[in-house]
Amino acid sequence: xxxxxxxxxxxxxxxxxxxxxxxEETTFCRIPCVTIRENTERPITIEIGTNYLVGxxxxxxxxxxxxxxxxxxxxxxDGYTSERVIxxxxx
Length: 91
Prior knowledge:
CATH class: Alpha Beta
Largest sheet: 3 strands, parallel
Shape: elongated
Number of domains: 1
Oligomer: single chain
Strand order of the largest sheet: 1-2-3
CATH topology: Rossmann fold
Strand content: 5-15%
Helix content: 40-55%
Order of helices and strands: HEHEHEHH
Structural class: mainly alpha
């Protein structure tokens, strides 16, 4: 299930995907991600995260695997979103 998949991600040196959700998961876990698509709904994973958007360009795929990004987790991806929502709704 989900936790088994999270373990696979966290134990990986990098992940190659075409999934938008995986781009977020790898960024949160600080695992380099190579996305084999031409676009993404998650541009923040490229801008400050660990994600390369390479399409189907084989040299770019190889380069991104050999030179992984050392990104950061976006500011509010800290695991406390629900607490912030509750705080806003209760005021």
